[in-house]
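Fold it.
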Amino acid sequence: MAFTHRSEETRNAILAAARRRFADDGYERATIRAIAADAGIDPSMVMRYYGSKDGLFAAAVDVALHLPALDDLPREGRGEILVDHFLRLWEGEGADDVLTVLLRSAVTNEAAADRMRTIFATQVGSVLSRSADGPARAALISTQLLGLALCRYILRIPEAVALDTETLVRSLGPTVERYLSDPL
């Protein structure tokens, strides 16, 4: 029992160090040695638990968007609810650096881009799975959500950063709503 607890603590320390290092240095410059040093362990332990830098990255950026089911939402305002939900993932209580790490890394690294594509295709796509054009709708919604995230949290465009959450929800919600319900 103590061994299991210790290995779980080690895994958590590695993941926390990896998230910080990937956020600070990006995927390309982050090294297993630096991550291990940050976690206070030998680099071989990182490899033991995660197998490779790619394996560690995938575990460090394992993201669950927890999107609400569309059937559970009122017909009007679903776009605003989805935008608000997404903003809370980035800014709300309990937000962490995982999405920032993933988006920043996805811009320059194919493994990170693939991870981002998978997350958005499966999680946003699953919300729209009943529709024959669900994948196209999910892609359009992703353009809005990821475009906002890139401009607000990565590029930090001053005008995008300055907008309050309510304005963003009110402004982007109707666009997302069109992607949910209007003919493509």
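Residues 2-29 form the longest helix (28 residues).
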